[in-house]
């Protein structure tokens, strides 16, 4: 008599999580991920799942011949793939409806058997592309390690690592597998010149559907908390640049527990190791740039000629007026544009129009008492300092700009000179006196929808003296975090 089977068992593996592994359709994380998408994006995504290349991992639930449908199901099961395709390519796009209707149709109808890891990755990636300001992105730079290239002529030339998708993902998996199980998804969007890598992390040594419902903590397995968001990391590789953009976000919210932060930091440090090869090792360095806008990142750390041409230097890159950037003689078009803007501003200013009450919490225009010539001079001064940069709709908006000033605040110019043999003396007012010079701890933080556009507006209104304003306040350094020494801003570690 044959012994009774004890059931299937699993063993730890170093392979990544498969695309075909499915999460239950009633999972809170699955429902939350799909609900964040708009109705048109949901319909387009479901239609993409029905394409021939995606059927193996993203195919819908089709009723087999002779199989009876569940009478308690909210939606009738489709009997053919063509029926599901027609629903998401013809029926739903042609009529009006709610987003909740599409989500319920996907989870309780056509994909009632579960959402695969690839489908979940495609949904999260689509959300990132639809809402490009939803995540907080950090720009990092890939540079060759100096100890590997010492004494070579090639060290002078800039080198970019070769990115072969299959080889890179295999190497990255080898780096991550000792710590956590990961699922990788690569996508090349049509709207941005970047390659998107989505990394899903799960604390388990197993590669099964059951393992997705449990997590390992201190060597012990426990049931996953439905309210706990998945640990997803997005890494963007801009085309033709040594930069990478990293978003340490999870389902739209930043992780705060130390264990998750250390795990994500480990993954980021594994990226240059996966791109390295014998004789050519890479490491990542800070660029001092953090932004919520992908267009701003591409403008400051992209493949275009605007990386080192922010602030007033932008006139040497863009030639919007059809003449040489060094030719400042013909300013008739600038004057006419300023006159039109002044006329429109006078119409819209409630403080100038008679018979109108001043709105609550509104501020009067500081230039309302100035004549047209003085207002024009302020705008020309702002243009000379900012150039074509820091315009409200230029797509280069930074939401935060923080600097630490380490210059001395002495009035005498000779007291600002730095000497190596000065002695540091603590001061009672919280600062530090270095051989007689006063250096307090000063940190400035600017926040807003477009920080440098706001500073440019303050110059145009005469609130900030544009002639004496330091260059780092124009955004010419292209950083969001830095240290000011001797009037110049330096990149600091993030």
Features:
494 residues, alpha+beta, Ubiquitin-like (UB roll), six-stranded antiparallel β-sheet, four-stranded mixed β-sheet, 12 helices, 19% strand
Task: List strands and helices in order, with pairings.
Blueprint: E1 22-23, H1 28-35, H2 39-49, H3 55-58, H4 81-94, H5 99-110, E2 115-116, H6 117-130, E3 137-144, H7 165-176, E4 181-187, E5 194-202, E6 214-217, E7 220-223, E8 231-238, E9 243-247, E10 249-250, E11 253-254, H8 258-275, E12 282-291, H9 294-300, H10 332-348, H11 372-386, E13 400-405, E14 424-426, E15 432-434, E16 437-439, E17 442-447, H12 451-460, E18 481-485, E19 488-491
Parallel strand pairs: 13-18
Antiparallel strand pairs: 1-2, 3-9, 3-12, 4-5, 5-8, 6-7, 8-9, 10-11, 13-17, 14-15, 15-16, 18-19
Helix pairs in contact: 2-4, 2-5, 2-6, 7-8, 10-11, 11-12
Which strand order does the major sheet show? 4-5-8-9-3-12
CATH top level assignment of the largest domain: Alpha Beta
DSSP strand tally: 19
Roughly what fraction of the amino acids lie in strands? 15-25%
What's the CATH topology label of the largest domain? Ubiquitin-like (UB roll)
Contiguous uncertain segments of 5+ residues = 147-157, 215-222, 250-254, 331-336, 345-361, 418-427
Average pLDDT level: 78
Largest sheet: 6 strands, antiparallel
Biased composition (Polar residues): 11-21
GO biological process, one term: CENP-A containing chromatin assembly
Protein name: CHL4 family chromosome segregation protein
Organism: Verruconis gallopava
């Amino acid at each position: 008599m044959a012994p009774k089977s004890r059931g299937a068992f699993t063993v730890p593996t170093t392979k990544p999580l498969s695309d075909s592994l499915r999460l239950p359709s009633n999972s809170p994380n699955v429902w939350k991920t799909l609900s964040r998408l708009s109705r048109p994006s949901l319909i387009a995504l479901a239609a993409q799942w029905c394409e021939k290349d995606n059927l193996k991992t993203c195919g819908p639930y089709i009723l087999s011949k002779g199989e009876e449908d569940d009478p308690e199901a909210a939606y009738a099961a489709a009997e053919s793939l063509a029926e599901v395709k027609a629903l998401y390519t013809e029926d739903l796009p042609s009529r009006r409806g709610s987003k909740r209707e599409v989500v319920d149709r996907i989870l309780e109808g056509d994909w009632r058997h579960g959402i695969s890891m690839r489908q979940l990755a495609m949904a999260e990636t689509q959300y990132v592309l639809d809402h490009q300001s939803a995540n907080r992105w950090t720009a990092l730079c890939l540079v060759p390690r100096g100890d590997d290239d010492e004494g070579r002529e090639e060290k002078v030339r800039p080198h970019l690592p070769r990115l072969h998708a299959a080889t890179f993902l295999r190497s990255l998996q080898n780096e991550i597998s000792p710590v956590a199980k990961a699922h990788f998804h690569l996508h090349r969007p049509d709207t941005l010149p970047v390659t998107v890598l989505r990394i899903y992390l799960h604390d388990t040594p197993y590669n099964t559907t059951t393992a997705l419902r449990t997590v390992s903590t201190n060597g012990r397995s426990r049931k996953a908390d439905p309210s706990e968001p998945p640990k997803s990391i997005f890494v963007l590789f801009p085309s033709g640049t040594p930069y990478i953009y990293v978003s340490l976000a999870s389902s739209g919210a930043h992780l705060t527990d130390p264990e998750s932060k250390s795990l994500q930091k480990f993954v980021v440090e594994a990226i240059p190791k996966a791109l390295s090869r014998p004789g050519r090792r890479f490491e990542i360095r800070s660029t001092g740039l953090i932004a919520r806008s992908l267009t701003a990142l591409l403008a400051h750390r992209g493949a275009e000629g605007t990386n080192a041409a922010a602030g007033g230097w932008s006139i040497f890159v863009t030639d919007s007026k059809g003449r040489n950037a060094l030719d400042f003689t013909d300013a008739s078009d600038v004057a006419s544009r300023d006159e039109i803007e002044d006329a429109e501003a006078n119409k819209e200013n409630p403080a100038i129009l008679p018979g109108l009450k001043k709105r609550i919490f509104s501020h009067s225009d500081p230039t309302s008492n100035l004549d047209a010539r003085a207002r024009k001079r302020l705008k020309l001064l702002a243009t000379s300092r900012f150039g074509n940069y820091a315009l409200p709709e230029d797509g280069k908006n930074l939401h935060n700009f923080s600097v630490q000033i380490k210059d001395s605040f002495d009035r005498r110019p000779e007291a600002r000179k730095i000497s190596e043999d000065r002695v540091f003396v603590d001061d009672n007012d919280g600062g530090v006196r270095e051989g007689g010079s006063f250096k307090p701890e000063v940190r400035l933080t600017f926040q807003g929808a477009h920080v440098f556009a706001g500073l440019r507006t303050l110059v145009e209104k005469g609130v900030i003296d544009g002639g004496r304003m330091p260059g780092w306040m124009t955004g010419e350094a292209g950083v969001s975090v830095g240290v000011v020494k001797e009037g110049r801003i330096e990149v600091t570690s993030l």
